[in-house]
């Protein structure tokens, strides 16, 4: 029996839209109340999670949508998953929630087996983990680990000098060294301070917030489809152009580059793919210049592309230094393999909770269900099925399906519309036709369904998309 039918025998058969507008009247009432205590402006609608099930999300007006956005790509197994409910009701979860351990100082007896279980799902070559609270937190923690590691190597493992200990209290070198992280234009790594400094997708993400003066290299802009031989030469030239820019920045940036961070597919920035050649060549650069290589798998990780970790398609050798994660794992942090990334003294990488054992338990349940139900194979199969149907629509509507991409990457699929206005209108039409879909960058539609999304769901989406295009 398919995983979706096993999990959700009562899942809706199709979307049901009861209101003429979205948000509907009940949603608008709730949003008006919410707006008095919270910023409700980004809200699509107000959800009723008790009634949501499987691949369908329900709002307070009773509208039932097929959900291809899945809480901004963060729901792996669907709504009200019975296995996650069992985990939530377990004694381990009760202890984790009621007596939330400060894991650094007072680790629970459960945390070692929980972390060992989490490491079963680590990317190839990684055998250590540090846990965090969110995707942005994971990246900030990774930067801190990278800087500490970089300086440890610079001082050859020796202890801190008196000058370092004194100057750091004034936020001055050498205790507070002048170091930077190289990232890429159109990247999104979070909205905090260091993560905001490496984010370069939309101005609104970082306006008015002080930033580090860190460099942004060019991320390749490919010709699609990627498997078209006619595009291979120009795409290789684009890779080499961007690699030269990255190396020139490493060599000339006035603040020493200590780390490099990249998404294997830039997600918020427009679903921009990095080739195997590009990702491997960056590894060569980071080794040449003794730079820490960080892969951000916050959105691409945990099965979304048909592999547990997207960068494993590139088989980067030797393995990257740090891999950050969050979203579909429902927990956050980074994986690593070099013990030298563990600071030489305690309390350097530290906070009250050092992550959250409750969320790690959920992550382990998600990982176990993915393996047990072979959901990576399903994601790949359904993705191929959906992509072919989108190619057929593209042939009929070429101006509305520009740069269709994500072939061979599970259901991690996107395409561009001619303008942002047309894209936004299409997303509204899709909701009115029963499908909740998200966008990215200015003109792109991105598909981010759960891993339990099946061919029958793809058919429903294609029908709604066809109708929505006709209504544009």
From TrEMBL:
Annotated protein name in UniProt: 4-aminobutyrate aminotransferase
Pfam families in alphabetical order: Aminotran_3 (PF00202)
EC number, UniProt record: 2.6.1.19
GO CC aspect terms: cytosol; mitochondrion
Enzyme class: transferase
Species of the source: Naumovozyma castellii (Yeast)
Any one GO molecular-function label of the UniProt entry: pyridoxal phosphate binding
Entry-linked InterPro entries: 4NH2But_aminotransferase_euk, Aminotrans_3, Aminotrans_3_PPA_site, PyrdxlP-dep_Trfase, PyrdxlP-dep_Trfase_major, PyrdxlP-dep_Trfase_small
Catalyzed reaction equations: 4-aminobutanoate + 2-oxoglutarate = succinate semialdehyde + L-glutamate
SUPFAM superfamilies (UniProt xref): PLP-dependent transferases
Keywords, comma-separated and alphabetical: Aminotransferase, Pyridoxal phosphate, Transferase
